[in-house]
Amino acid sequence: MPSRNFALVHRLSGIALALFLPLHFWALGQALQGEAKLESFLRWTDRPLVKASEWAIVLLLAIHLTGGIRILMIEFLPWRDWQRTLAAIAAASALAIGLLFALSSTAHAQAWPHKPVRFVVPFPPGGATDISARLLGQKLSEIWGQTVVIDNRGGAGGGVGAVEAARAAPDGYTLFFPSGSVVTANQHIYAKMNYDPEKDFVPVTNVVSGPQVLVVQASSPYKSVKDLIDAAKAQPGKLTFGHAGIGSQTHLAAENFVNAAKINAVQVPYKGEGPSLVGLVAGDTTFLVTNVAAALSHIQSGRLRALGVTSKTEFPQLAGVPPISNTLPGFENIGWFGIVAPTGTPKEIIQKVYQDTKKALESTEMRARFYVQGLAPVGNTPEEMGRAMKEESELWARVVRERKIKVE
Amino acid sequence: MSAKSQSLLWIAQRASAALLGLCVLVHLATMIYAVRGGLSAAEILGRTSGNVAWFAFYTVFVLAIAVHVPIGLRAVLIEWTGWRSRGRDVALICFAIFLIYGGMSAVKAVFR
């Protein structure tokens, strides 16, 4: 090819690239404003038209470089014309192939999740929080094509797990799966906390909710709610109740019951709901107000006796067990389990987790599996969950103040 | 324009071209590493954020572009349009500043 043609092609490709550069800088500047925007930008670049434009630009760059390398060789190397042309084409082609290789693989990096997702559950296995997380995690694993790992971190009424999740990278690969009280009540109970539910987490979705059940050991002399209340009144401070940890949902449910019944009973904190049930079966405590999901198997196997449910009406899975409100009019206590994410998690990931959770909860199979556990699917939006958490936090602030529940 | 200025532009054009060739190679290697390594957007920004070496590299990249592109366009404008007034150089300097502004905005976002 004559030299003047090379120069012409070099210039034309240079002009095209010069026109493209401001657009490229502008798009990059916009995309790099945060992880969410970058994720979105990277997904956008995966569209066929954008991909075709990228390839065209790579081609232009290769052409421009070929001309440029050739010009440099003419000026600096005493080679023959065909040698320069060949060397320039070879160098530019190598570069173009490399660029195309990089561009063709960009799609692999973008889709979340591309590795296992961790649900930090702030209680040991066996409790309702753990059961809910495992049921949902299994379904989300199918939807995402990635394993959802359940990481049980019990202790400090859910505080140990909360700190673990709050300190995790906000990249969507660590999500926090607490029971409601860990993010709505603990801040009012603990004088010192290593996490701030309002600042460290953002709501994703409330997964399931359900009532609790007042249970005693199968060999207990108490056959009804009234029996238990009468016994507690007859011997104030003698009866004990276990719970999943100070500030946990089961602790607050029991405190709510004790408060409503106007009795004096001693609380015994455990590391989680599972261990508190083991303690009751072993006869270490008198009663529990625990989540139906966790207690159901113990009730069905005859190890525990259910005296009353905290919902205002009888609960289908515990037919024959009356509402506590039959004895204490107006009494109600509903627990919930949901997903929150470390603050800074990209909004698009939060939205995806919410959408996929909602989708999972809509499946008949999931509804049935939660139903037998005594749990009802919720799947509200992050905004709705945020509002509900705020309202609940205000409620618990009042209850905690009135009951003088405080951990220094 | 004096012969001295002409030769300065010539040197700047060639030197920036050589630098750009190198920068494109490094940029290419980075892209392949990031993408083939399966890094997420958060992980990519986590590595570039606060990294002075990346900031310096991309600043050099942008400056080389801001030198190379306007000089190349200058030659095209002179030969194809015959535009030889002072306005041409002013317009090209403005374009160079625009490129530096746009490029450095992106670099700043990577570094932040």
Q: Can you give a write-up of this model?
A:
- The complex is a heterodimer of chains A (408) and B (112).
- Chain A has 408 residues and is an alpha/beta fold.
- Chain A has two domains: 3-110, 3 helical TM bundles of succinate and fumarate reductases (Up-down Bundle); 112-408, D-Maltodextrin-Binding Protein, domain 2, CATH 3.40.190.
- Helices cover 54% and strands 15% of the residues of chain A.
- Chain A contains 17 helices and ten strands.
- In chain A, the strands form three sheets. In chain A, strands 4, 7, 8, 9 and 10 form a five-stranded antiparallel sheet that branches. Chain A has a three-stranded parallel sheet with strand order 2-1-3, sandwiched between helices.
- In chain A, helix 6 (128-144) links the parallel strand 1 and strand 2.
- In chain A, helix 3 (48-76) runs antiparallel to helix 4 and helix 6 packs across helix 15.
- Chain B has 112 residues and is mainly α.
- Chain B has one domain (3-111): Up-down Bundle (3 helical TM bundles of succinate and fumarate reductases), CATH 1.20.1300.
- Chain B has four helices and no strands.
- In chain B, helix 1 packs across helix 3 (52-81) and helix 3 runs antiparallel to helix 4.
- Chain B is elongated and about 50 Å long.
- Chains A and B meet through helix 1, helix 2, helix 3, helix 4 and helix 5 of A and helix 1, helix 2, helix 3 and helix 4 of B.
What is the secondary structure topology, with strand pairs?
The complex is a heterodimer of chains A (408) and B (112).
Chain A: H1 3-31, H2 35-44, H3 48-76, H4 81-104, H5 107-110, E1 117-121, H6 128-144, E2 148-152, H7 159-166, E3 174-176, H8 180-184, H9 186-189, H10 197-200, E4 201-217, H11 225-234, E5 240-243, H12 249-261, E6 266-269, H13 273-281, E7 287-291, H14 292-300, E8 304-309, E9 334-342, H15 347-362, H16 364-372, E10 376-377, H17 382-403
Parallel strand pairs in A: 1-2, 1-3, 5-6
Antiparallel strand pairs in A: 4-7, 4-8, 4-9, 4-10
Chain B: H1 3-36, H2 41-48, H3 52-81, H4 86-111
Helix pairs in contact in B: 1-3, 3-4
